[in-house]
């Protein structure tokens, strides 16, 4: 197939999923064309089937807000026509689904019918999408897509709750490349971080308020009172200065490391004992899946789609959002040497259910079904 993929090129979960999907499809022999405003962060391999088309947004003094959506729609029209694409797959509804709708209408005037598939990722529905500023456009463009997928049952349900959707939404969960995300031998790194064999807790996120990084730090401070431990924080975002201040107030700075945005998260996960994800909302929790693939059990909230991934009492524990005390007790249970090996093994077993080799064929089948229906 000749497939167009539209996504955000940044480190966010939706861009990562879109890029990894495109890479895998290219390895399977499909021609994959990425259309976005800069080279996707994980588009880091050369493959003869992979193509990248940059969307340029001309500036003009009149434009307080450069019209990205129009430049994107024009680029889609051009690439669909010139590369004779079979399907356009857009990741994250805003503004990709409405730009694809416009491109589809323009192509119709040229007697070209391009099937559009929209994958919903989470905040495009649960936070940003349902805001009144966007809701009518999001509803319309989802209903106008030829195929719609969501990354969890929970996101599918929430989409039907928040929007008047007439379309079927198929659930295709996120996936993991178990060759990249596996526990590697990094003993020297572990020795440097926890020289006295302290337990290692890890959190990775974009440090937005929805991730409740404050809970991460409060959980860690309590765990640390009970057993020698260290906390590694990967990622960066608006909440970081507040979190640094909190660490100073709690006098735990010597045991907390802010590592910033890292490419090779799997190296940090390879030395971790526990992953923390206390999020307020989380449609899937790709970062938790990455941890589990590296044999790291998860303490999480039970928000959104997390319980579909993190099995309570098996691969970790889930608790109500904000239940910091319960999360501390559960963390101590997992970190007990009598329990830790069992939780680590179960986390890896569960991650295998989301192996890229099992999930990508679901997208291929879905593309074919939507193309055949046209
Ligand atoms: O919240 C993020 O980390 C970014 C956001 C995105 O769109 O990039 O992530 C969403 O999509 C990911 C990939 O499908 C999911 O794993 C995340 O759970 C989801 N985030 C939220 O729902 C808050």
Q: Based on the structure given, which CATH architecture of the largest domain is correct?
A: 3-Layer(aba) Sandwich
Bound molecules: ligand GMT
The geometry reads as elongated
Order of helices and strands: EHEEHEHEHHEHEHEHEHEHEHEEHHH
Distance between the termini: 15 Å
CATH level 4 superfamily of the largest domain: Glycogen Phosphorylase B
At the third CATH level, what is the topology name of the largest domain?
A: Rossmann fold
State the domain count. 2
Tell me which oligomeric state these chains represent. single chain
Mean pLDDT: 96
- Sheet of most strands: 7 strands, parallel
Physical arrangement of strands within the biggest beta sheet: 3-2-1-4-5-6-7
- Helix count equals 14
Q: Helical proportion?
A: 40-55%
> Which CATH first-tier class of the largest domain would you pick?
Alpha Beta
Task: Output the radius of gyration.
Answer: 21 Å
Which stretches are poorly predicted, pLDDT < 50 over at least 5 residues?
none
GO molecular function: glycosyltransferase activity
Domain Glycosyl transferase family: 186-341
Domain Glycosyltransferase subfamily 4-like N-terminal: 11-180
Protein name: N-acetyl-alpha-D-glucosaminyl L-malate synthase BshA
